[in-house]
Amino acid sequence: MVLYDSATIGGSCSGSSSSSSSSKPPPLQQRQQTQQDIDGFLAGAGYRVRSSELRKVAQRLERLETAMVNSPADLSQLASDTIHYNPSDLASWVDSLLSELTQPPTCPSEFIMDPVSNQTVVSDAWTTAEPHMPQVHQNISYEQQSLNNQLTVVPAMEEDSGIRLVHMLMTCAECVQRGDFSLATSCLEDMQGLLTRVNTVCGIGKVAGHFIDALSRRIFQGIGGGSVNGGSAYENELLYHHFYEACPYLKFAHFTANQAILEAFDGHDCVHVVDFNLMHGLQWPALIQALALRPGGPPLLRLTGIGPPSPDGRDSLREIGLRLAELARSVNVRFAFRGVAASRLEDVKPWMLQVNPKESVAVNSIMQLHRLLGSDPNRNSPIETVLSWIRSLNPKIMTVVEQEANHNQPGFLDRFTEALHYYSTMFDSLDACTVQPNKALAEIYIQREIANVVSCEGSARVERHEPLSKWRTRLSGAGFRPLHLGSNAYKQASMLLTLFSAEGYSVEENDGCLTLGWHSRPLIAASAWQAVSDGTADFPA
Amino acid sequence: MAVSLSTWVLISNFKLAYNLLRRPDGTFNRHLAEFLDRKVPANANPVDGVFSFDVLIDRGTSLLSRIYRPATAEEPQPNIAELEKPVTAEVVPVIIFFHGGSFAHSSANSAIYDTLCRRLVSLCKAVVVSVNYRRAPENRYPCAYDDGWTALKWVNSRPWLQSQKDSKVHIYLAGDSSGGNIAHHVALRAIESGIDVLGNILLNPMFGGQERTESEKRLDGKYCVTLRDWDWYWRAYLPEGEDRDHPACNPFGPNGRSLEGIKFPKSLVVVAGLDLIQDWQLAYVEGLKKAGQEVKLLYMEQATIGFFLLPNSNHFHTVTDEISKFVSSDCIKTIGERIMQCIGALLCVDYVCLFKCFLG
Fold it and tell me: Which residues does the entry assign to the active site, renumbered to this chain (chain B) (predicted)?
């Protein structure tokens, strides 16, 4: 057995990851770190362990080792069958494994070593906790990293023209931020000229083209949005459908959310799903089928689908509801559908959903919450209003999927830069997919997002994407606590990806949430939440 | 015999988690492995003077590498087009780093390796290229070496990585565990290619052989690692049916290649005294010496594997000091050589020429 000590070298361990000293004061977030006693060394490795608990965790690890050695079962099978959660919380993870491996506590004295007697053997070697180290650079806290720094540089960048285009885009954006529109205009002309000499079918040329268009729109048409947000409901649905088919982002969203909802509904007989954006209801057949196959039989499922009103007299919500009802009937799931037509999510009032107090509610928001972040000085903040009434429904689960990007920064240049990185990566992932008819329309879907982020302001700018770290803060502040997505959801999401021909997609676990990205840059993040049952919620300032 | 608490927790956690991932039938629970692995994104915002970005260096194999560079004073926040701006110093070492994990675990964006590579940048004033090579058992020998070789060629052909002094890329290969093994074999491949590798840094390199050595018998199961585990990893990496005397595993064994008379880079080999495969690592060092190759051995008696992952031990600082000297010695030697050259020529030339020689 290894004995530990706290052999450290005084002075030379600054807790930072390099030996060069920085003369800047530690970042603000370090000083505001609420859990001051997190072990800095392990934090740098991605684990959150309190210094005060280090010894306890070490003991548990020793016990785990013993349990593993003594375990008659095939460990790998056990590992497969167990659902793991949030590996960063090392103490909990070790404990959960220990409880899997050790017998139920009918004979505690046999299996649980007395920590006191254990200590006398090793207490000499275990001195008191190591000096508290200030945080190593924040690998796990997104607050530390401004997201416009996550990059995937594609090989096409190595062309000089590609690099020049990027330079010029940045210059142009900077001019726009400064209000120097004449210089911005001449930049635009130069870029359009350069575009003719660059491959615009793929790579940086294609992405640059979209950004040039968006800048053009901003400069010449102003920030009211013009026809960007226009597009009939039919058009939007068509583009959405092609985006759904061409790449795995929406499928991942639906799949992960459904998995979490299924688990949350376990043991409940009356369940009600509220979908913030029904579209074609693509998410729900899979859930209906999974509920049909549930051991113990399916629940009564109600689905309330929110969507924009149909302009041409069709009741498209009802049509989709009917189709889903037909499917439910075919698999013997009792099903009821209700459509709520609203042009804006903030116009929806909870009474419209007719939630029955006896039923378990799941609120499902796939890329909708960010649209509520635009603030209108004349009204209450829409996001606060909506989160508040969601909470009042006391849902069993709220599934949230959002673009993993910082496209809601106040400064135009920052936003532009971040969008350039984000959408370059997304387009790269699309390029890598095999040619299919869906691709062109899927690209238009993405292009519309770009145009909104770059050329709109105020209430016209609805694509106000914020990263997971910000949503965590916001949702916690609004009285929600996270429900962790575990290794089973992770595994199924990974397997979903193998169905796609392009290699390069990756699912990652991030503190209980799952992200899907391309070549190590996360692009979309899925999380699950539950209303905290008591206490007041303080909305972030 | 003492190890710091944080290090012990970290290494112990890895080892126990790894036990869950290896299946008796030789397959690997890749999904759970990826789920458990703590990863970090690249960060083009300098943190402690280092920024990073990911590059796809081979589309065919989805071979990603993470590049780490020192931030310069005039460029506090590089933008997307400036990440590959040419290095400005006279001599910039470029360290191609291969992460560890016994060929099966971890990635270039694993938190522990991201941290380690950042340290290397500051320590050696180097650019570090961390290669996300394909892993076993899904990808056996020679995939990892092929990826290493691809990375070496890529690095060598980047104009922006050329040192100002001689417009060449000053390349070092480094790695821990399986990464150390890869570094050796990539250096081997480089020999006939004309690509100069200036040095190899091998931290607890993963080598083995059919024979059971004394250290393996003595330390089997003592520090959460068993001989059976190592056997599993070799079976997962080596071609099916091959035994551990395959040259990938045992480069100086019965099937190994002689390095006598070969221009092989100088090596710095770090061996941990509590590592059960140390006899193979020491045999590797002997093999290099016998072939007349330059090699320095750092034997850290009290150290466990992975001790260099956290900066909280004497061993850590000893090793980092040695690495720093190893990498910078080329610069010093070159200047010294030049001085000697110039002094030698003093008899025949005047002072103007002398200065010219010196400056180069």
Answer: 177
